[in-house]
Amino acid sequence: MPTPARRQYLDIKARYPDALLAYNIGDFYEFFDHDAETIARELHLTLTARSFGPGEVVPLAGVPMHAIEVYAARLVARGYRVAICDQVSPPGRGLVQRAVTRVLTPGTVVEPGMLAPARETYLAAVAIGRRDPTTGLPRAVGLAWVDASVGAFACAQWSADDLPHALQAELARLSPAETLVSAAVARDDAPERAWLHPYTLSVCPDDAFEPESARIRLCRHFGVATLAAYGCERLPLATAAAAAIIQYIERVNAPLLALLSDLRAYDTHGYVEMDAHVLRALEVVEPAHAVEGGASQQGATLLATLDATRTPMGARLLRRTLLHPLRDRAALETRLDAVAELVERLSLRQRLAPLLDGLGDLERLAARIAQGAAVPRELLALASGLGRAPAVVETLADCAATALGETRAELDPCADARDLIVRAVADPAEATGRLLRAGYSADLDALVDGASETRQWIAALEGLERERTGIRSLKVGYNKVFGYYIEVTRPNLARVPSDYQRRQTIATGERFVTAELKEHEAQALHAEERIAALDGELYAALLAELARSHARLRRTVGALARLDCWLSLAEVAVARRYTRPRLADDSALEIVGGRHPVIEATLDGVEFIANDTRLDDLDDLAHDDEPTRAMLLTGPNMAGKSTYLRQVALIALMAQVGSFVPAARARIGLVDRLFARVGAEDDLARGLSTFMLEMVETAFILRHATPRSLVILDEVGRGTSSADGLAIAQAVIERLCSVTGARTLFATHYHELARLAETLPRLSAWRMEVAERDGQAMFLRRVVPGASDHSYGVQVARMAGLPADVTARAAALLSQRLAPPALVAERPIAYARDAAADGADEVVEAERLRIGDGLASEERELALALASVNLVAVTPLEALNLLFSLQQRARVSLGMADRERG
Ligand code: ADP
Ligand code: MG
After folding, report:
1. Less packed terminus of the chain by CB within 10 Å, N or C?
2. Is the CB of 594 under 6 A from ligand 1?
């Protein structure tokens, strides 16, 4: 039989099986049983045991109450949920009542200390529709998400045609911290499980997603009869996902619901579709090979290069903007007009910058008011931020750009809210111990005055009593146990008046009280309690009053964030000499003097070599022959091919977020979808780079690209033998050029492929220019017409520091034109032999050989060994060992082994 205390714990725990239960006992939050083991492991805490009564000892680990937020933050960051269970009845006799007051989950944390300032933390929900009996896949899928730190709430729905890629692309943009799914979807064998693979899932009961009850729940939440106003009346799955979010938040952090006053249904077809591969290949917001906690990688993204924002909300908006390039030319021109005006008018930039500097995160502050969680410091920060709005409005008064004018119109300084805060809230620096300042409430002031009179009376008492009794050493003091007392030293005890009542004897004398002193003491204590109660009550009312302005505050703050974002784009454009792109509705692409924005910014002092790009409109009739739609770029490794490909895609992307671009001139026929694939060997760090995967991705492009799309393919076909790779690459290019018609840039170090340009009319061959001087290759980084004639592998190896004798030998081998496939056919061997074991034989063997005679067999051996290595499967350490043994053998065969040893 469990004790009542144990039963209470088990009852509560049973309601939160998926969370770690932090159970308040005294000054600690304790975790029991399996939870204790988990947190001891995760937080490196000591695991102890606690007895819940005779015979019942369970594992225990605990954290001090005041530190729970720090520990919980770490647990939540690792994907755990933490249920905070507090004492809800005043301490007294019998069992204290306890209840879970809040569940901290990765997607619902709003504590400022637990959130990253410059990016959103999203809670998402995915609702899966009925399955098609033939394919087994859903006919439609709904998605909803919320950023609980600001109250943004939105939903979308896709039909089978767009699945799963549109959903996956949207999830890649959001990168939700937590995703709600039904139990049916969370099952390992559910086909949708794979779509949601990298995300932290939280399982909700299946009925949370039931469309009809979802509709009713949402209507009730918004207090409306129909969802028409939210644009999701005909989107049952989007609605279901949104309702699942409402239900979940109700359970884990109900006060947040007040923030979710609006829901926006949106359509991703308005954005340029970019999936996770594109985001990674172009390093839009995250470096491709993110090293955990690697600060050195920070600068290597487009976001970092373009981010000169001055506020966290501006930084978040810029991030969202880069992840959501638009297809609509009119909307983009409006943005570009705003950025252009800021670029052109230095004085405008100079006036705006100081107004935005240090403005703080007004967006999240406003949300904390709506949640009733804002503390005085936060209110004052909001008021001071709002105080700058009138100056911003004035600064924008003479702007010509429509978007700047609209922003100005949205900038409601919310003077009433600001005045109220300034009038009401006490400056924490004054340390009055109260939330509200004097003069705000007459009732509160009267209580405070009364209390201070009492305190003054007590303060004056010592002087008065010394005079009355003539005891010069008499003291008035205070301690926690007895309250106020009058202390008289032993020699003076005879002079103590009769109204003194003895309370305590101490070493040097006695302590007394008087009836009057007790009375004042009671008054003082009572007054403090009443002051605190009234102060708190009035403050809560103030927050509720301010919360009514939340929608207006959000609009104002949104306008400030937009200004910050545009100003950042403008400042970077000026500093880096970007130009305004010309946007067009055709499918041409023309860039003169284009640069890679990120590499350019990281080349310290070295000049970045600008390059041109020209692809014709598909319907271009000005040409006698077919328009050029694809570029095949050849050149040796390290020549700059990948950089060039990415630079073209980045310029298009930048143009379609409304940014200026790193080019002397650019004319961009708007892109509907951006595709990027990087060949397996260039993408080893992903760990998934199999040839299979590469082909799956390439197949996807062939199926989904349109003539308006922009496709960059970097070394595709590399993940297999060169003959296969060449064949596949050729087939892919042929298909893209002649059937799909998408604008395509294809980079490869297989210079043999360039021949294709002779037969494919829409394809033009380009190469990275390389100059040779004294057998040294010099990469000029210039893209010029034609095909690269050889791959300069030996020169690159030399530049990389391979010993001169090895590169010399390699050059000799090359001149004899030993093509690897022929060799393999002749005598295939596996390179599985243990190099150390047979090394001795090799040396003996080699020593009999002299340079020039018998080398043919050894060079063959070497070439074979090299040719048969599976580079995709080899680990860096194995590669190094392999290189070492190859080098040893090469040295031996060149007769250098002895010299080296001597
Ligand atoms: P490839 O793909 O041909 O192997 P990369 O594009 O990776 O070569 O380029 C290798 C390096 O050369 C880059 O990291 C960059 O430092 C430099 N680079 C590339 N293009 C340029 C350029 N246009 N101007 C200056 N440096 C460049
Ligand atoms: Mg490359």
Report:
1. C
2. no
Angle at 558 between CA 237 and CA 111, to 5 degrees: 75
Which of 736, 760, 761 lies closest to 746 in space, CA to CA? Answer: 736
Which ligand does the CA of 796 lie closest to? 1
Inter-axis angle of helices 329-344 and 346-356, nearest 10: 100
* Measured CA distances, 335 to 271, 338, 405, 581, 876 (Å): 15, 5, 12, 12, 47
Residue 689: per-residue pLDDT: 47
* Residue 191, pLDDT score: 83
pLDDT of residue 749: 77
Taking the C-alpha atoms of residue 398 and residue 348, their distance in angstroms, rounded to an integer, is: 10
Question: What distance in Å separates the CA atoms of residue 486 and residue 514, rounded to the nearest whole number?
Answer: 8
pLDDT in tens, 774-819: 767 788 899 999 887 766 777 777 777 788 888 787 777 776 654 4
Output the CA 167–ligand 2 centroid distance in Å: 30
Reported as type and span, the H/E element at residue 23 is: strand 20-25
Residues of the chain with pLDDT under 50: 291-297, 686-689, 818-855, 898-902
Task: Give the separation between CA 249 and CA 243, rounded to whole angstroms.
Answer: 10
Q: Are strands 483-489 and 509-513 parallel, antiparallel or unpaired?
A: antiparallel
**Pocket lining: 142 vs ligand 1, CB cutoff 6 Å:** no
Answer whether 662 contacts ligand 1 (Cβ < 6 A). Answer: no
Q: What is the C-alpha to C-alpha distance for residues 437 and 471, in angstroms, rounded to an integer?
A: 41
For residue 217, what pLDDT is reported?
A: 94
Report d(CA 128, CA 192) in Å as an integer. 8
How high is the pLDDT of residue 832? Answer: 30
Take residue 729 and report the two structure tokens written for it. Answer: 């690459």
Give the number of residues written for the chain: 902
- Cβ atoms of 650 and 594 within 8 Å: the answer is no
- Write down the pLDDT at residue 820: 43
Other C-beta atoms lying within 10 Å of the C-beta of residue 350 = 10
501-506 and 582-584: which strand pairing?
Answer: unpaired
Look at strands 152-159 and 264-265 and give their pairing: parallel
Query: For residue 298, what pLDDT is reported?
Result: 56
**pLDDT at residue 682, rounded to an integer:** 55
pLDDT score for 662: 98
Contacts 24+ apart (CB under 8 A), 730-737: 730/756, 732/698, 732/702, 733/630, 733/632, 733/760, 733/763, 734/760, 735/702, 736/630, 736/701, 736/702, 736/705, 736/711, 737/629, 737/630, 737/761, 737/762, 737/763
* Chain Cα centroid distance, residue 842: 54
Mutate to test the pocket of ligand 1, among 641, 642, 643, 766 (most ligand atoms within 8 A of CB): 643
Helix (H, G, I), strand (E, B) or coil at 697: helix
